[in-house]
Amino acid sequence: MKFPIKWNEYTIRLKKPSDAKEHKKLMDSLIDENADIGSNKKESIKKYEQSISKAIKGKKNVSLVAFKNNKMVGGTGISLKNGKADHVGSYGISVLKTERGKGLGKKLTELIIELAKKKLKGLELIELEVFKRNVPAINLYTKIGFSIVAELHKTLKVNNEYFDEYIMHYWIK
Asked: Domain containing 138 — which CATH number?
């Protein structure tokens, strides 16, 4: 798999440290929107730079970003856990509201799974957490091959309101 990849109106490539500013803009936009993501606090550019640099230096992470007209509109990654769970990769994805429903999330997910299979030694299982109310995301993950393995109650809290989430698994082996 060779990057960058041109797909529809997007350029998809490996994430690099210089993406910190655009990544912050993407995440800040999702936080402002109150999107169904785990983050609820805006971080500094320095924090993004450190996080990206650490991920790139290690051999336990893979990350992709999608750009449209020189603006980051999506990103995804898989990070291997540690210890007795070092065969499990934690998956995350973020797509700008204006780009949802266009197939970008599906494409990013398919590409990051393929990249993780090649680059993350020992990966056997990919795990994600998703708001139970996020039906479009759940449908996407199910189509790709993820299965719901657990339902956690009141584990997410937004504006003093509790929400349930699903844990979903995708077995490589």
From this structure: 3.40.630.30
The pLDDT > 70 percentage for the chain reads 99
Tell me the C-alpha distance between 45 and 21, whole Å: 6
Angle between helix 20-33 and 45-57 (nearest 10):
120
Closest alpha carbon to 104 in 68, 56, 132: 68
Mean pLDDT of all residues in the chain? 93
- pLDDT at res. 51: 85
Closest CA to 74 of 107, 44, 96: 96
To the nearest 10 degrees (0 to 180), the angle between helices 104-119 and 135-144 is 50
**What is the C-alpha separation between 27 and 145, in angstroms, rounded?**
26
What's the pLDDT score for residue 52?
86
Task: Show the domain range for 47.
Answer: 5-171
Domain count for the chain, please give it: 1
In Å, how far are 6, 47, 134, 155, 156 from 139, measured between CA atoms?
25, 32, 9, 21, 20
Band (101; pLDDT cuts 50, 70, 90): very high
Cα(37)–Cα(63) distance, rounded to whole angstroms? Answer: 17
Statement: residue 71 has pLDDT above 90: yes
